[in-house]
Inverse folding.
């Protein structure tokens, strides 16, 4: 199997700076291992950007399973806070995809998301770690209500705020033609899943990532927007 990927990030139409981070920073392809990720930083003008970049760099340089790579990102943030206590409170989400052979593994914490497009089926792979999502899981809120709930952005899990973190990790088999999307909530807050899925199914990966960013910006672009797309191609 051959894998193609493309990444893009944009500060959006409202924010002064971009606190998101993506890995890798450019498009590419591989017949070996694939590692891509999105992180959405938080904590203020500079600190969110610091947190997301620290986490991505640590995760990318670790030779570990996805969940442990994300935990390494958490340690990197906590070590930086220990050096500079003024950064206390900075944190980041992280959604990471690793592929070896035809086995994909997702590591995830926060409300950045992973989606899978297989044939004509576009489905969300990850669960948001937010207060609103927990209400949905408990049956106290409908998904439609959660989409506009005032606590839909209130994270219940994130990197950087505690010594230990609870990271979701799961595997799935990849087949030729699959496309996987990782994105920050700057996309999903502005564009509906059906519209994201429709755009994700057409064009090259390079075209897709920038079209999705343009769609979010056209809808208001109230947050930073980051998109990573991966496609499996039969040799």
């Amino acid at each position: 199997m051959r894998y193609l990927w493309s990444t893009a990030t944009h500060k959006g139409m409202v924010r002064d700076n971009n606190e998101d981070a993506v890995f890798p920073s450019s498009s590419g392809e591989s017949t070996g291992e694939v590692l891509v990720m999105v992180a959405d930083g938080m904590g203020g003008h500079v600190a969110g950007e610091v947190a997301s970049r620290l986490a991505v760099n640590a995760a990318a340089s670790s030779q570990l399973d996805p969940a442990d790579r994300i935990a390494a990102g958490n340690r990197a943030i906590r070590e930086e806070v220990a050096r500079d206590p003024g950064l206390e409170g900075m944190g980041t989400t992280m959604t990471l995809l690793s592929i070896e052979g035809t086995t994909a593994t997702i590591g995830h914490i926060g409300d950045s998301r992973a989606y899978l497009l297989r044939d004509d089926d576009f489905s969300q792979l990850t669960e948001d770690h937010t207060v609103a999502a927990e209400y949905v899981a408990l049956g106290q809120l409908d998904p439609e209500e959660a989409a506009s709930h005032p606590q839909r952005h209130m994270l219940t899990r994130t990197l950087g705020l505690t010594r230990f973190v609870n990271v979701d990790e799961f595997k799935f088999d990849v087949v030729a033609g699959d496309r996987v999307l990782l994105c920050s909530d700057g996309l999903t807050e502005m564009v509906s899943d059906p519209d994201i899925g429709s755009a994700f199914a057409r064009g090259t990966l390079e075209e897709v990532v920038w079209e999705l960013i343009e769609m979010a910006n056209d809808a208001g672009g109230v947050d930073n927007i980051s998109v990573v797309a991966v496609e499996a191609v039969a040799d």
User: Anything to note?
Assistant: The CA atoms of residues 21 and 53 lie 6 Å apart. The mean pLDDT is 94. The helical segments are 47-61, 66-83, 131-137, 143-146, 185-188, 193-200, 205-218.
